[in-house]
């Protein structure tokens, strides 16, 4: 899951070296924190959050295939 988020984020931003993905496992769910450079934050979130929503949709579809719950936090 982390590799998928990392790939998507690196494809969007101008500075791929600043992309970091951290996985936090809690009880029955997984939280993935995505961090990017400040100047790339707008590109990851998108207008009205459309890009962020699309990332979450793709990740949720992949997680459903594996039978897990994944929450994506953009920091």
From TrEMBL:
InterPro entries noted in UniProt: KH_dom-like_a/b, KH_sf_prok-type, KhpA
Principal place of residence: cytoplasm
CDD domains tied to this protein: KH-II_YlqC-like
Biological process per Gene Ontology, one example term: peptidoglycan biosynthetic process
Gene3D superfamilies membership: 3.30.300.20
Family, similarity comment: Belongs to the KhpA RNA-binding protein family.
Role played: A probable RNA chaperone. Forms a complex with KhpB which binds to cellular RNA and controls its expression. Plays a role in peptidoglycan (PG) homeostasis and cell length regulation.
Subcellular localization(s) per the UniProt record: Cytoplasm
Recorded GO MF terms: RNA binding
Assembly behavior: Forms a complex with KhpB.
Coiled-coil region: none
PROSITE patterns in UniProt: KH_TYPE_1 (PS50084)
Keywords: Cell shape, Cell wall biogenesis/degradation, Chaperone, Cytoplasm, RNA-binding
Upper classification of the organism: Bacteria, Bacillati, Bacillota, Clostridia, Halanaerobiales
UniProt protein name: RNA-binding protein KhpA
An example Gene Ontology CC term for this record: cytoplasm
């Amino acid at each position: 899951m982390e590799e998928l988020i990392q790939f998507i984020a690196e494809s969007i931003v101008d500075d791929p070296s600043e992309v970091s993905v951290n996985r936090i496992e809690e009880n029955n769910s997984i939280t993935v924190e995505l961090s990017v450079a400040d100047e790339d934050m707008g590109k990851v979130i998108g207008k009205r959050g459309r890009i962020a929503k699309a990332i979450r949709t793709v990740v949720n579809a992949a997680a459903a295939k594996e039978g897990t719950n994944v929450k994506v936090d953009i920091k």
